[in-house]
Model the fold of this input.
Amino acid sequence: MRHTKFALAMLTAAVLTACGGTSPAGGDQTQKLTFSQLTSFGDSLSDVGTYAVGAVKTAGGGKFTINGDGTSKNPELNGKIWVEFLAAELKLPAPCAAQTGLQGNAAQGFSVAIQNNLSCFNYAQGGSRVTNPVGPGNVATGSPIGELTVPLVTQVANHLSRNGNKFNGTELVTVLSGGNDVLMSLTVLQTAATAAGTAAGNTAFATSLTAQLAAGATNPQTAAQAIGAAIAAESARPGNTSQTIVAAAVGAAARQPGNAAVAQATVYGPMVTKAQADATAAGNKAGADYLTANGPKLVQDLGTAGAQMATIVKNEIVGKGAKYVVVANLPDVASTPAAKSKTADVQQLIAAMVNAFNTQLKNGLGSDERILYVDLYTVSNDQVKNPAPYGLTNTSTPACGPNALGTTSLICTNSNTVAGDVSHYMFADEIHPTPFENNLVARYVLKEMAVKGWL
Amino acid sequence: MKVRFTSVVKVLGVAAALACASTASAQSAGQFTAAFGVNQLTPKVESGDISAPALPGTKADVAKDTQPVLVLTYGLTDNISLETAIGTPYKHKLYGAGAIAGTGQLGTVEALPATLFAQYRFGAPNALFRPFVGIGATYAYFMKERGSARMTAVTNPGRGVPTTFSIDNKFTYTAQIGTVVNFNEKWFADVVVNKARLRTDVHFSTGQTQHMKLDPVAVILAVGYKF
Done:
């Protein structure tokens, strides 16, 4: 029995020591599936360098994030976006732009011949929309940069035409689009709303000032007509300013019988101030009314875009042979610094637009084994409200400081970020994520892929 | 594992039936016993959230494991004994839970909860059933922590650095309740339940940490011999 015990003890000791090191190790890093390549469609959020040419390249830019290697400052300042992290994690080649070029101002270095790179499968382009070929930054919008903004529908068509009208079924496809449909619609709407507000404000100013200036005259009605005519005449004169209009109005008013006192600054001054207040109120109301009247149409348009994106995914991607398609919904645009700088009305409108887009997208996709719908909206919404667990230190201020193109992160580098440690900021510019936030997005996508059984 | 358990239970059943007729003696002062059997170790997991950066509510679950075990006891008196066990390490699978539920197996760890029990055994040494209670000092030793492709993907993707983790070893205590079934003068069966208090911390190579309440329950079925 003694021998038996000894043998058992030896056996146990042997088991403990035989199986190699006892210290922690990475373990088996083999993934369940091996993809042949990463093929990406979409907009600036997935663009790895469509515009990294000409003056943009010279400035060290090309991606819509904090560009360049800043890992000497912080490991998170690696200049990468989510599709790059994704490709690296899946042990696939680094994604490269399927098309490069710029159609902007030649004098500024923004005119570079379009080049198609047949061995690259990242079709995503900054400014791209779902079906409309003109997005933010496109030369047709008056932008000097001249982004190509080839829409999602055409990106997919281009890929199909290069590859015998099919996907090979072994690639991982990512699709993230729609953000520029929101931004573009919003810009158009705001321009129109501002115009409506300005027109209403001007009218309100003239009306208010006229009534006040005429009130002291012996015959206010006649006086009002004379003042109104003076304002109209001065407003029509090229080179007028608000001061010259006020001067014309006051002059006409003072010439009316019994109304000489109005010429004194102490008398007409408060009247002008009140007229300005009336104008602002009327202008704001008109602008808001315009938003209210036209917002629903935009929300509807975004719903249509979401449905169109779903159709493209189903018919032109999955329908053409792709078996692993990650479709991300629109992040919470209303929580971006771009939206937070707008009025509450506009923020609500943005939220409604994003919601309409995502709802239609999700409904349109339905349930399909080949499609992984990733809810970026919910995560990004939570990140802004609850940044600490995500490791985010700032979710409201862009990390990028001003640059030659304004505030866009397209030419933002580690040398023109704002002061302080921006490595864990959420936003690079008003709308685009930092490399760290991109890494969080990659984690979330990979987590969803694991749940789906694709990892 | 089920098959193995069922057969063990059957053996015990048959053995118990045979034993009824015999006049059993049992552990008494100065006596060694050795029992060989199986131990199912089931952590009762309450996972803390992994620290930033992570999805809020990222938790882990730890699966149970069953290993062969050799239980050794020594009778200090007829009623007081010391017990310890030796065996192969328990290999536990770690799963994503909470916000990352459904991600599947993320890693494995091997645990060796070495315990020295002081026991009180009720009844006379030759009683057919001898229930006992015990309290033990435990050193929970964790080793061979292994990550996976999925663990790396959800903690530090795209950098080509596999995520590793280590679990703090802990001194703690274990409570025990069980019974001996004496078949005859030499042979007996042991049925034991151990419950340990075990709270530890997991440290990831990403700098993240996670507090885990494991409080494992061990169920041991063994057949033994008295020397």
Notes: Helices of chain B lie at 2-19, 149-155. The radius of gyration of chain B is 21 Å. Residues 2-226 of chain B form a domain with the Porin fold (CATH 2.40.160.20). Residues 152 and 160 of chain B are 9 Å apart (CA to CA).
